[in-house]
Write a structure and sequence with these properties.
This protein has about 300 residues and is of the alpha+beta class. The protein has 6 helices and 16 strands. The protein has a 5-stranded antiparallel beta sheet with strand order 6-5-4-1-7, with no helix packed on it. A hairpin with a 2-residue loop joins strand 9 and strand 10 (about 190-195). Helix 2 (about 40-50) crosses helix 3.
Length: about 300
């Protein structure tokens, strides 16, 4: 009886070791598009864990795996080449998740604000009080109360205060790494949609804080410019909403894109010339929802 029990325990230990090894991403060799095998499966698991890419764990380093690697590298300020060398591999093996977000990041209808420039979160309503943490541009927090000068926000470490001048509570947020647009207005989500931003590394949609002027919106506009090969393009859009007028960058519908193209990967290999492409129904909704000049925050 003791021998059987010992054998059973030994089998559990062996299985556990094999299972750990199966999950581990080895950094001994470089992974790139076209590779196959168990280490590619480990890579796909890591990417799903950290980037929510919904990759099929099939051990084939194809287009979707490549696109997710590019997104991960871009989000983590690594060399963006779609190749998993030691730098990217070691970063993926770090136990921290790239999707770790602060208290307010799971945005639903509620009381939220967005940070428009790097600032401190203070322990009380005074800049001379202790700093709880740094709030970075583009971060979202839920808030519980406010005065004319301060907002009390919820963080992973408790509660703190941010100066009103450094935040906005009505905003259009473009999240490049998530390829998502959300329009928060009067504590309600007015628009929430997948998008396609500028081609990564070639025509990146500029990160920053902007203001979209209601008066600049247009119904029916032909956008003109040049492709990378020097040929001209002319694209008709039903809803044109520029927020960087000096560069003709704005929100618009893109009837030439299929619904499946509005995902978190298309921008890595077939992005726009810098504009934010939207499904037609979402562009229409955004166009008519903008009743005043609105703040636009583009974050990576």
């Amino acid at each position: 009886m003791l021998k059987r029990k010992a054998l059973f325990i030994l089998l559990i230990i062996i299985f556990s070791i094999q299972n750990v090894n199966a999950e581990s991403l080895s950094c001994q060799s470089t992974l790139r598009r076209g590779n196959t095998g168990s280490n590619v499966k480990a890579l796909q698991r890591k990417l799903n864990e950290k980037m929510d890419c919904s990759l099929e764990v099939d051990g084939v380093f194809g287009k979707k795996t490549y696109a997710c690697v590019v997104r991960y590298q871009n989000k983590n300020k690594l060399t963006v080449d779609g190749i998993v060398g030691k730098q990217t591999c070691n970063s993926l093996n770090n136990n921290k998740s790239s999707n770790q977000k602060d208290e307010g990041e799971n945005l639903t209808d509620g009381k939220y604000l967005i940070v428009i420039k790097n600032t401190n979160i203070y322990a009380s309503q005074s800049t001379s009080s202790n700093t709880i943490k740094q709030a970075s541009f583009g971060q979202i927090y839920s808030y519980v109360s406010n005065t004319s000068n301060w907002y009390k926000v919820k963080t992973n470490n408790g509660y703190g205060y941010i100066k009103t001048e450094n935040i906005r509570t009505t905003f259009i947020m473009v999240d490049i790494s998530e390829q998502r647009l959300k329009y928060m207005k009067h504590n309600q989500i007015v628009v929430d949609t997948n998008i396609v931003t500028g081609m990564l590394g070639k025509h990146d949609t500029p990160v920053g804080y902007y203001v979209i002027k209601k008066a600049n919106r247009e119904r029916g506009r032909t956008l003109r410019g040049y492709n990378d090969d020097g040929t001209k393009y002319a694209a008709y859009v039903n809803y044109w909403m520029p927020f960087i007028t000096s560069r003709s960058i704005g929100f618009h519908d893109a009837s030439w894109r299929s619904s499946s193209e509005f995902n978190n990967s298309t921008y890595t290999y077939d992005g726009s010339h810098g504009c934010v492409n939207m499904p037609s129904s979402a562009a229409k909704k955004l166009y008519y929802a903008i009743t005043y000049d609105e703040d636009v925050i583009v974050r990576d």
